[in-house]
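A.,

Following up on our hallway conversation. Structure tokens first:
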């Protein structure tokens, strides 16, 4: 038997010495993540989807787990993990409650996992059990993340405030900094923000600042403006940032009642962010790597870190199931409420509608248990609706199983962010057991003043039963419909027994989950269970965000998605300050700035430049009508998260960008200030710059601190350079293995080259969502439009030299799998979350295989600063074409054609004065520099300069200007062997020679060997 993982043993040993005041955040401990392939399915005709579960282990305890499905729905699932034996991770039992929504059913799952180690900290095996009423089995894979190593400072203690931006122990040093020239200049630039006022309260110990911060926070909490469509609800992130940080900074200065008011506000908004997503879905995209989400959700995590040690009562045990009896009424109590005859299973024939109302109007109705008069609406102002097709809002359609229902969209004239109340009274003539159902959506129902679950059996005597339904209409997809359909259905004793049996089963399940919640509560030292649950959801969401954008499935921020850094940078620093641990399990946002610096070139007078490859190199936002240079603001917020090894060079870069205090503010930061709200600014960048700038640290220039090669083993990112001298440095950025996700499409095997003062490859992020191919990348192309452009590559081998040279080998086969098509010629590729369906792409026809080998020589023996040998060996690729991209443009569609496989591309000869093509050689000249490519293929290749149009639907198209090489027509298997040199003056001769082990390549005085698909240096 595989005994307990060594890291778990460490946790067990530490459990007995953990202090009672330890900050109660289970995410500081170890985590086990489980992928269950094919466990979720709506019905036998739909492909099964993967369920991902995450469990934290802390203080010798497995906490309640949370789960998500990349392609089933956006619900947050709950699960309990039980090792078969306490020290055995190879046999696990899992109970799960799978969340449903208006379109996808939920239910239970119970299964066993048996697996074995599959590499370091990884497991692979199978699961068997039941899910959603079906027997299930499939592949189970998992990864165990040990508890991250603590950083140099101690974690916050329970009850400690402030703890988010800095700790009370940091105040003496901060006060000294405030008394320096830099500090005085910084404090003079502090904006009128709640955060700025809170920091001044801590620095100056003057309660007047806390009072002013309180007034600003009250104004923020009273502001419900989401901003226009271009802002995408980012005001909610900026607003909650100010509220949460000020709450922490002024905690001891504010009265308890106001702290509680702020606490409830933060809980409400955080709940809305991580659970009640229907409130925001009009302009939100619910993917963890979406900039829309990142620009708001970061503040939810900050708020939860501010509240994470809030004490609370133990979770209540679930009540034992029963069929309750409701008392009838003799009258409706109000003549305006329509009294209708009971019709089994049907919406009342007549129903009264309040019209749209605000949150403030609905509160008295909730407190009065749905009483008609509590709304304060004149009876004549209610609208009577009847089950007739010409009544606005009354519908029967496929979404309602052709039953009568109220569609709130047309009924309310699509009044977003409103409450809507519907009421009627049934007259019941026979005593019996009745089944009440809401049928659609998340509504609040009262029957004779008793709040009901969405589906519940009731004992009713003859009499009148007044139903009142409140429907919160947020911002759902206006095409989907939001329905209200309260019904009663008479059921017999056998049906009631079956229903009660099912309720008892659910009660038993809920009792098991309650026992785990109670143990969680006890282990955490009595933390409010709802705060803990929201913190679990929020931190799980951000772990996924870091991995998809920066970590093992990402490591890039797309050109417009520099905004995805703005809030998360601050949140990562706050998390580090509170927990004394990094946020990401591996890699993560903390490495973003060092890697960005690694890809830049710097001039003697402070100018710097780079080439966009993993997004915009210059920190310019390019989306959402928000174009700013936010480099210094990211430096100001992210700096504490940078590993200490790289902090001196990042501090150097921060100063190189200009005045550290001059970072740009958030979009429309002074909106409330312009309305006369003192302290209402969202902008606190100068505050973060003051707090985080390491004024006493000696900066180190990259030439002193950075190597000539960078290899991130998690993401496969590679950066190679010939030197750290000036803006003429040669810099090659390469992605060996990425990526599945949303930020941009796969760049697996592609590279960007800059050197001698010029970009030598075209940018490939222009309208990247419309690329539809790899024409903007220096890789082998397939002119079949259905390649799996979101697939990952695999780095097979990598060798590096200290001078920036390297030899790499990658398997890119998955990228070139074809899209499967059904008998109609189409198939779904991505679900509504943007996740590729696992079965959408497969090897079509013959086997698909693409292996790219790359040798990079910066040693200078060839007589030029850079030699690249590129070998692509392929099989099963449709119309193979090797390209070197020059430029990508958006142009009018030349023919107005729509996209389909037969005419997805239009190829035309191009002219460019910088490019010469002769036989199997191409030359690209810029200034005195030139890049030359020579093909040494065993079979002849045709080299040309082309404009290749990627035709899109409508009037637009993308034009890629590329240097192309094509082998024999009709061949789907073969190879390309290209030697590329970059330098000034005449390039060295390139020749091929026989070698006992394979193909020898001579470039000037340098020699290389291609043997069995592997490249290597030939040394004398």
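Then the amino acids I'd put at each of the 1020 positions:
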């Amino acid at each position: 038997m595989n005994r307990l993982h060594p890291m778990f043993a460490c946790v067990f040993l530490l459990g007995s010495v953990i202090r009672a005041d330890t900050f109660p955040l289970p995410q500081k401990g170890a985590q086990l993540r489980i992928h269950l392939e094919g466990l979720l399915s709506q019905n036998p005709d739909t492909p099964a989807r993967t369920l991902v579960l995450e469990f934290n282990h802390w203080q010798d305890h497995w906490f309640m787990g949370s789960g998500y499905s990349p392609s089933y729905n956006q619900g947050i699932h709950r699960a309990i993990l039980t090792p078969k034996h306490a020290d055995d991770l190879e046999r696990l039992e899992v109970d799960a409650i799978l969340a449903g929504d208006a379109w996808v059913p939920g239910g239970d799952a119970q299964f066993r996992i048996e697996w074995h180690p599959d590499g370091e900290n990884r497991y692979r095996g199978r699961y068997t059990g039941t899910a959603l009423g079906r027997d299930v089995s499939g592949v189970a894979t998992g990864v165990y993340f040990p508890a991250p190593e603590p950083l140099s400072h101690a974690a916050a203690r329970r009850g400690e405030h402030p703890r988010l931006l800095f700790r009370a122990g940091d105040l003496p040093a901060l006060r000294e900094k405030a008394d320096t020239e830099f500090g005085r200049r910084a404090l003079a630039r502090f904006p009128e923000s709640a955060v700025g006022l809170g920091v001044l309260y801590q620095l100056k110990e003057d309660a007047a600042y806390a009072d002013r911060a309180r007034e600003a926070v009250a104004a923020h909490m009273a502001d419900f403006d989401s901003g226009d469509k271009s802002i995408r609800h980012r005001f909610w992130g900026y607003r909650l940032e100010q509220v949460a940080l000020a709450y922490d900074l002024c905690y001891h200065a504010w009265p308890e009642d106001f702290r509680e008011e702020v606490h409830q506000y933060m809980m409400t908004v955080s709940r809305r962010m991580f659970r009640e997503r229907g409130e925001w879905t009009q302009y939100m995209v619910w993917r963890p790597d979406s900039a829309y989400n990142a620009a708001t959700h970061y503040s939810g995590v900050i708020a939860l870190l501010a509240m994470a040690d809030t004490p609370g009562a133990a979770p209540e045990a679930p009540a034992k199931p029963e069929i309750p009896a409701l008392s009838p009424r003799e009258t409706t109590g109000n003549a305006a409420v329509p009294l209708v005859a009971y019709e089994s299973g049907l919406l009342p024939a007549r129903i009264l509608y309040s019209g749209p109302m605000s949150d403030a109007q609905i509160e008295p109705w909730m407190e009065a248990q749905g009483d008609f008069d509590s709304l304060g609406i004149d009876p004549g102002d209610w609208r009577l609706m009847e089950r007739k097709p010409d009544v606005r809002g009354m519908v029967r359609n496929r979404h309602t199983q052709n039953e009568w229902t109220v569609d709130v969209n047309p009924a309310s004239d699509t009044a977003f962010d409103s409450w809507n109340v519907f009421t009627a009274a049934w007259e019941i003539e026979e005593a019996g057991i009745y089944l009440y159902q809401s049928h659609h959506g998340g509504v609040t129902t009262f029957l004779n003043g008793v709040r009901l679950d969405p589906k519940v059996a009731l004992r009713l005597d003859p009499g009148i039963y007044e139903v009142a339904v409140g429907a919160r209409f947020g911002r759902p997809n206006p095409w989907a419909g939001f329905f209200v359909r309260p019904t009663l259905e008479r059921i017999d004793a056998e049906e009631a027994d079956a229903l009660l049996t099912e309720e008892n089963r659910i009660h038993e399940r809920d009792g098991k989950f309650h026992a785990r919640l109670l143990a969680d509560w006890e282990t955490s030292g009595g933390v409010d269970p709802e705060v803990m649950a929201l913190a679990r959801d929020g931190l799980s969401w951000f772990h996924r965000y870091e991995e998809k954008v920066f970590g093992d499935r990402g490591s890039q921020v797309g050109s417009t998605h520099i905004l995805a850094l703005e809030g998360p940078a601050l949140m990562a620093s706050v998390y580090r300050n509170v927990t004394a641990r990094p946020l990401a399990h591996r890699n993560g946002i903390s490495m973003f700035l060092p890697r960005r610096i690694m890809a830049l070139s710097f001039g003697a007078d402070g100018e710097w430049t780079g080439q966009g490859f993993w997004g915009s190199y210059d920190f310019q936002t390019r989306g959402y009508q928000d174009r700013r240079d936010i480099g210094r603001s990211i430096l100001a917020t992210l700096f504490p998260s940078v590993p200490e090894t790289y902090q001196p060079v990042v501090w150097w870069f921060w100063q190189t960008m200009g005045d550290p205090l001059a970072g740009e503010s958030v979009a429309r930061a002074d909106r409330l200030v312009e309305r006369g709200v003192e302290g209402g600014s969202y902008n606190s960048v100068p505050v973060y710059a003051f707090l985080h700038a390491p004024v006493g640290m000696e900066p180190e220039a990259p030439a002193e601190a950075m190597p000539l090669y960078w290899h991130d083993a998690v993401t496969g990112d590679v950066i190679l350079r010939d030197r750290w001298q000036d803006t003429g440095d040669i810099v090659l950025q390469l992605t060996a293995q990425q990526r599945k996700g949303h930020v941009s499409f796969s760049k697996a095997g592609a590279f960007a080259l800059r050197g001698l003062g010029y970009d030598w490859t075209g940018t490939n992020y222009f309208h990247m969502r419309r690329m539809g191919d790899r024409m903007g990348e220096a890789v082998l192309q397939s002119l079949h439009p259905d390649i799996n452009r979101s697939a990952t590559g695999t780095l097979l081998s990598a060798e590096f030299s200290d001078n920036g040279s390297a030899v790499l080998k990658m398997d890119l086969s998955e990228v070139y799998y074809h899209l499967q098509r059904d008998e109609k010629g189409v198939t779904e590729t991505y679900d509504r979350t943007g996740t590729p369906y696992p079965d959408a792409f497969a090897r079509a026809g013959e086997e698909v295989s693409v292996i790219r080998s790359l040798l990079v020589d910066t040693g200078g023996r060839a007589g030029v600063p850079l030699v690249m040998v590129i070998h692509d060996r392929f099989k099963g690729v449709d119309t193979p074409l090797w390209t070197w991209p020059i430029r990508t443009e958006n142009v009018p569609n030349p023919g107005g054609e729509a996209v389909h496989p037969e005419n997805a591309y239009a190829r035309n000869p191009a002219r460019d004065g910088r490019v010469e093509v002769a036989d199997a050689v191409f030359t690209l000249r810029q200034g005195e520099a030139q890049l030359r490519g020579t093909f040494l293929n065993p079979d002849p290749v045709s080299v040309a300069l082309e404009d290749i149009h990627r035709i899109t639907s409508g009037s637009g198209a993308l034009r890629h200007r590329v240097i192309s090489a094509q082998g024999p027509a009709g061949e789907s298997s073969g190879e390309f062997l290209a030697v590329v040199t970059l330098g000034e003056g005449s390039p060295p001769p390139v020749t091929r020679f026989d070698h006992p082990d394979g193909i020898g390549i001579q470039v000037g005085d340098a020699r290389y060997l291609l043997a069995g698909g592997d490249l290597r240096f030939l040394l004398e």
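The chain has 19 helices and 48 strands. Curious whether your intuition agrees with the design.

B.
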